[in-house]
Amino acid sequence: MENCRGRVRACPLFLFMAAAACISFPAAVDARVRHYKFNVVMKNVTRLCSSKPIVTVNGEFPGPTLYAREDDTVIVKVVNHVKYNVSIHWHGIRQLRTGWSDGPAYITQCPLQTGQTFSYNFTLTGQRGTLLWHAHILWLRATLHGGIVILPKLGVPYPFPKPHEELVLVLGEWWKSDTEAVINEALKSGLAPNVSDAHTINGHAGPVPSCPSSQARRLSVDGGKTYLLRIINAALNDELFFKIAGHNMTVVEVDATYVKPLETETIVISPGQTTNALVTAGRSTGKYLITASPFMDTLAVAVDNVTATATLHYSGTLASSVTALAVPPPRNATSVADRFTDSLRSLNSKVYPAKVPRGAVDHSLLFTVGLGINPCPTCKAGNGSRAVAAINNVTFVMPTVALLQAHFFNISGVFTEDFPGNPPTVFNYTASPTTGLATTNGTKVYRLAYNATVQLVLQDTGIIVPENHPIHLHGFNFFVVGRGIGNYDAKNDPKRFNLVDPVERNTVGVPSGGWTAIRFRADNPGVWFMHCHLEVHTTWGLKMAFLVDDGKGPNESLLPPPADLPRC
Ligand SMILES: *[C@@H]1O[C@H](CO)[C@@H](O)[C@H](O)[C@H]1NC(C)=O
Ligand SMILES: *[C@@H]1O[C@H](CO)[C@@H](O)[C@H](O)[C@H]1NC(C)=O
Ligand SMILES: *[C@@H]1O[C@H](CO)[C@@H](O)[C@H](O)[C@H]1NC(C)=O
Ligand SMILES: *[C@@H]1O[C@H](CO)[C@@H](O)[C@H](O)[C@H]1NC(C)=O
Ligand SMILES: *[C@@H]1O[C@H](CO)[C@@H](O)[C@H](O)[C@H]1NC(C)=O
Ligand SMILES: *[C@@H]1O[C@H](CO)[C@@H](O)[C@H](O)[C@H]1NC(C)=O
Ligand SMILES: *[C@@H]1O[C@H](CO)[C@@H](O)[C@H](O)[C@H]1NC(C)=O
Ligand SMILES: *[C@@H]1O[C@H](CO)[C@@H](O)[C@H](O)[C@H]1NC(C)=O
Ligand SMILES: *[C@@H]1O[C@H](CO)[C@@H](O)[C@H](O)[C@H]1NC(C)=O
Ligand SMILES: *[C@@H]1O[C@H](CO)[C@@H](O)[C@H](O)[C@H]1NC(C)=O
Ligand SMILES: *[C@@H]1O[C@H](CO)[C@@H](O)[C@H](O)[C@H]1NC(C)=O
Ligand SMILES: *[C@@H]1O[C@H](CO)[C@@H](O)[C@H](O)[C@H]1NC(C)=O
Ligand SMILES: [Cu+2]
């Protein structure tokens, strides 16, 4: 199953199948079913001047890109050859009625133990664009991730000028240490884990202070041609700014939904988000620096401040030519991030309408998202306390039986259905309280009837520190109808909601000390995880799940579990 290592030639559509040697479509007889095999194996790699074994798919880092078309069925046979339990999440794929293939460990499945095999099996319905796959257990997604490219149906063009070529750019974070050791050390101490040592672009950091000889990726372009960059943030904990010296980009899609073209110098992208942008090689020659640098506007929070670099390299450029530098925004450039985020709009065309739930909603929810401090007698470094995180003051405790299994087979005692729809206590969420920092434990879900409409306001808290949290919802896309700083005002803020062409996505940043309002329709039965996509916060408990009941008849009901679903 060869692919072009991130590079796809955008062939004329009628030639597409002939280009199978270039894109990864296997020469399968059944063009509608794409088979992939993921062998999870250890691989020794050298980065930042030192070497370590990492968990990979098929020995590749980043892992292989999955290519398919809208309406295809994808079957990925995963075999676990490593010592860790593994599960893989197909981030952003709706998984209509196929929740068993969603992937988060102990939410929709038990993990694949060493030696086990599971075939994820799902159909790509109503989606086209770039997404990502990644491990959804422990911190394994640090190295176990890759792109998903969903091409439009055969013969359906992009709603933007056809690019000459397409490039998948996976942004990541690299630790010199073993990432499991990093998080385990933090859980023992009660303190925050060590930040990463560098960011990466397609697996490479480029020259960095600690290792000036570190390699940089080179993207070769021809002057005058336009390229589609499929940018994926697969970092564990860092939101990133992405820039190319001397070149503006035009964003045309985010999270596999088309947007109104947005010209920008800087792209802001949170872990779990994807952004497709056109870039025209409008210069005639030269080398231009590409940068991925952190966005973290809470100065009290330590961040890996090492910028990853690659180069945009025009064909015919002399080796001696100097690279034009890009100046990344400072880590706290909130205004740069806001300008970008506030400008994104759904394409909302006749062909791709924004199906925003309008009018009164069935569930109007307010969830606080933030940190907390709980006692931990064994946490010496934390002076007997540990950092935790919570939604509506509930720190989610992982069950040992998958929630979806417990739901489908009516296994009691695994979860309760009393997840609060509003904060249990009303306070000034964005202030920094010095008392009442503890949270409650629970494995709670919020239950929704099939097809119910939901408005959910995600409100950051200032407990310990306010911070930007990229919240990811499994099983659905949602519309980002509003956003603001301070405490959400239920009376006045809805008046300014955009119910016409809000951006549609699966992961959204809740601004530091502010709120974000989303709307979605619960048209997918199953159990759907929602969590912060900063892995450190997920580990600390910033997660919950929605349980969506079956509707009427088989088309609105969860399928039975596949026979090879791993058991606990
Ligand atoms: C990685 O390197 C170590 C020692 O450098 C070696 O023992 C081990 O077998 C290697 N592992 C793999 C998967 O190549
Ligand atoms: C995939 O799931 C479909 C039902 O959605 C089923 O018909 C098919 O047999 C499954 N394929 C495999 C290989 O499990
Ligand atoms: C974390 O950082 C500290 C301080 O630099 C270092 O002593 C420790 O070994 C690091 N932990 C891991 C797991 O790398
Ligand atoms: C790049 O886009 C910005 C708008 O974000 C615009 O102000 C600027 O003039 C553009 N630069 C070039 C070189 O087109
Ligand atoms: C990055 O952080 C380190 C340690 O906190 C600091 O010494 C260094 O000056 C910072 N570098 C930049 C470019 O801000
Ligand atoms: C960013 O942080 C620096 C200190 O590191 C501060 O001087 C500057 O004012 C901050 N900028 C913004 C926009 O907050
Ligand atoms: C623990 O207490 C010591 C002594 O009071 C103090 O210096 C240190 O900063 C504290 N550590 C934390 C994480 O609060
Ligand atoms: C909360 O759950 C954690 C495990 O996730 C446990 O260590 C802790 O003791 C629990 N706290 C309470 C108060 O039950
Ligand atoms: C809430 O706290 C913030 C930050 O301390 C403060 O600026 C604001 O005035 C407070 N709001 C209310 C209503 O007290
Ligand atoms: C969260 O729950 C804990 C434990 O019950 C309580 O002490 C704390 O006051 C609550 N905090 C908030 C903000 O509701
Ligand atoms: C879901 O609700 C929408 C809006 O009320 C309605 O148009 C649609 O028919 C409903 N779908 C189902 C399957 O009930
Ligand atoms: C792996 O998963 C199984 C099934 O959930 C569990 O019993 C086992 O403890 C897990 N192993 C580790 C090392 O966590
Ligand atoms: Cu978070």
From TrEMBL:
A GO MF term: hydroquinone:oxygen oxidoreductase activity
Catalysed reaction, written as an equation: 4 hydroquinone + O2 = 4 benzosemiquinone + 2 H2O
Keyword entries, A-Z: Apoplast, Copper, Glycoprotein, Lignin degradation, Metal-binding, Oxidoreductase, Repeat, Secreted, Signal
Highest taxon listed in the record's lineage: Eukaryota
InterPro entries named in the record: Cu-oxidase-like_N, Cu-oxidase_2nd, Cu-oxidase_C, Cu-oxidase_fam, Cu_oxidase_CS, Cu_oxidase_Cu_BS, Cupredoxin, CuRO_1_LCC
Location in the cell: Secreted, Extracellular space, Apoplast
GO cellular component: apoplast
Cofactor: Cu cation
Database matches in SUPFAM superfamilies: Cupredoxins (SSF49503)
This protein's record includes keyword tRNA-binding: no
Cofactor: how bound: Binds 4 Cu cations per monomer.
Signal peptide stretch: 1-31
Chief localisation class: secreted
GO biological process, one term: lignin catabolic process
Residues in coiled coil: none
Residues annotated as domain Plastocyanin-like: 40-153, 166-316, 419-551
EC number(s) on file: 1.10.3.2
Family to which the UniProt record says this protein belongs: Belongs to the multicopper oxidase family.
Biological function: Lignin degradation and detoxification of lignin-derived products.
Protein name, entry field: Laccase
UniProt organism field: Trapa incisa
